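# step 3/5: fold
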Amino acid sequence: MKVLIGAIALSVIAGLPSILSGGPALTPAAATTSYGIWSESVVPEVPASADESTMTLGVEFASASAGVISGIQYYGTAANAGTHTGQLWGPTGKLLASVKFASDSSAGWKTATLSRPIKVRAGTRYIASYSAPRGRYAIDENSLGGGKTVTSKALTALRGTFVAGTGRPTRTLNDSNYFVDVVFSPTGTSTPSPTPTATATATSTPTATSTPTATSTPTTTSTPTTTSTPTTTSTPTTRPTTGYPDATNTGVPAGTSLTAYTGPTTISTPGTVISGKTMGCIRVTAPGVVIQNSRISCAGGYAVEVPDRDGPMSAPLQLVDVEITCQDGNGSGVGEAHVIVRRANIHGCENGVDANQDITVEDSYIHGLFNGNDAHADGIQLAWHWNGSAYVCCGLNITIRHNTIFGASESGVLGTSAIITNPTGDENILIENNVLAGGAATVYCNRPGTGKNFRLVNNRFSTRYSSKVGAYMPTDDCADETLSGNVYHETGQPISLG
């Protein structure tokens, strides 16, 4: 049994070895109470690739509305043999559910029902996947990613993903679609239980660099007011920054005495000021909060979160002279909206900053990204923003100014990017006077087409990891944005940005 979905666009590059491909454009399918991404009538151009190695194939997707996932689906044939297992992965890389498919040698879509439905949040990226122990998976190149997405009602498929062997698939290659799907029901509707059928096999894909996904965060320049009794009376310091940010001029100032924070993990009192603390994961739901001269350590999820749905705020959260670590794991240092970050040292995170709207990052050092096998490591990634009733495309009002951002692990293993934007539609984006290096491409701009008031100016692109700045290039699809004054960091010579 199969459910449905249609078409739109989103993706990034990943240029490594090639596999089988080809295929016609997909036609959006009609909607039902429970639905998926592709209709049952969709047949891949290549139903079974020649690759016989063990692979895990997936689709990265997001929903514009909250709902539940009740099943995993994929297209397979008799060639895709063996025992197949489906998985649902959360936004931080956590395995949310797994399910075995029943044996089925017929060609077509296979569905396995989860033991319990999994809730998914609006505007959040998940990966649905299945294992193909003997390869021979379905594939269609140049059809998902690279400016091509697929949308049906609330669901949008962003890119096809894979990993050799087993695990969370995050790599992409040749904008390939591996025909993996979900059974989705919007919140408030019943969730039919599809009859499980056998799973289709997946063909192995060669190693490739992961392609970044998009999440937006706008910039904000307002400073928070302290209208309620703060937990301390200190105010943000004005420690000067000399040169570009590094470990010597970001994070907790030398000599600062830190004590354990004992307050609430959700800060809901407006104007709260916290200074000189060691802290775990923090959520802020009130305006005008300041966290300064403190070290924040959190494994998984957001180390510091201002939920976009709680905004807009009369005054943003200020993070000043802080060190933030995700403890070398899948997680984001800061997200999602209405935040000013100054002189922060952010490291050990899969994503330094996950930005939806009204976010400013300046004079900060983002480095040492967690770049495990299942990671999609970005210094700053832009996402969709909350408009008051739903998450909509794309990033809004984001300023990234005078930072050092390296899209690489501490040992120099390249991640996806230093900065990655949405494929299209980001608005009021300023990337200015930063030192940038690493990633597959160091900066991914809107693709295809231009952003709205999207400026990439006076930045310094470093060759510390690669003569090409990133593994393959300094930028991707940036030529049609506003560009000026960008140079090689080491020589000061102008750099050509594509």
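# step 4/5: annotate
Residues 3-32, 188-242 have pLDDT under 50 and may be disordered.
# step 5/5: archive (pending)
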